[in-house]
User: Which sequence fits this backbone?
């Protein structure tokens, strides 16, 4: 596997079209990783405190209708 410096150098050598294609690929790749992490956090209860806080705010009248 290449090191980070080598990857950075390879990216610097990309043509504008290749860079655009890489940017789109990386955006999709990163979004997929974020989605997987979010789903894992939800399944393991890592975000339960956020839901509890939101319900408490609603019950105590600290929310406004949209």
Assistant:
């Amino acid at each position: 596997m290449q090191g980070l410096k080598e990857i950075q150098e390879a990216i610097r050598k990309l043509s504008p079209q290749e860079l655009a294609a890489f940017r789109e690929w990386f955006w999709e790749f990163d979004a997929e990783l974020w989605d997987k992490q979010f789903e894992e956090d939800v399944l393991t209860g890592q975000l339960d405190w956020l839901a509890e806080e939101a319900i408490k705010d609603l019950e105590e009248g600290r929310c406004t209708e949209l």
